[in-house]
Amino acid sequence: MPLLRTLPFFLVLVVGGGLAIGYLTTPGSWYAGLEKPAFNPPNWLFGPVWAALYVLIALAGARIWLRARQSSVMRLWWIQLVLNFAWSPVFFSLHMIGSALLIILLLAAAVIAFVIASWRIDRMSALMFLPYAAWVLFAGLLNGAILLLN
Predict the structure, then answer these.
(1) pTM listed for this prediction
(2) Where are the bilayer-spanning segments (predicted)?
(3) Three-class SS of residue 36?
(4) What gap in Å lies between CA 72 and CA 75, rounded to an integer?
(5) What is the per-residue pLDDT across 97-144, written as a single tens digit (0 to 9) for each?
């Protein structure tokens, strides 16, 4: 089955990349000292949520790769991954809350564009991105609130 041959690459890329970036850009004392909104989730929640989302992102990427690797949908998938991986270093390492907000807004746009564009090619991939879209929109709201509070 082609998916079983392709999926490991995407899992290593997405889950491995996400874990590596998370390890290299831990929130630390700077983040702990920031004012946060009342709706800020507990820190322990972010790891499991992102791990689950990264598996869905990898699976959707592998499915689109097999169906339309030269398409605009696949390009959107790569764009969202670059933006996703850029956010943590900009926010947690560079402490650039405003720039991180711009990145996450672009990420939300790319994720939503992927959902819309992939709907015709592979509805399952589009559906797998819906929880990701919801979380990124929430994270954008959180990022914006932190910017306003600090």
Answers:
(1) 0.94
(2) 7-25, 45-66, 73-90, 96-117, 129-149
(3) coil
(4) 5
(5) 999 999 999 999 999 999 999 999 999 999 999 999 999 999 999 999
Rounded CA separation 63/57 (Å)? 10
Helix or strand or coil: residue 78? helix
Query: Which run of H or of E encompasses 68?
Result: helix 43-68
CA distances from 126 to 56, 72, 118, 130 (A): 10, 14, 5, 7
CATH number of 2-149: 3.40.50.20, 3.40.50.460, 2.60.200.30, 1.20.1260.100? 1.20.1260.100
130 sits in which H/E element: helix 130-149
The pair of structure tokens assigned to 76 is 């959107």
Residues 93, 52, 66, 121: is their CA dihedral positive or negative?
negative
Tokens standing for residue 122? 């592979």
Per the listing, tokens 């996450």 go with 104
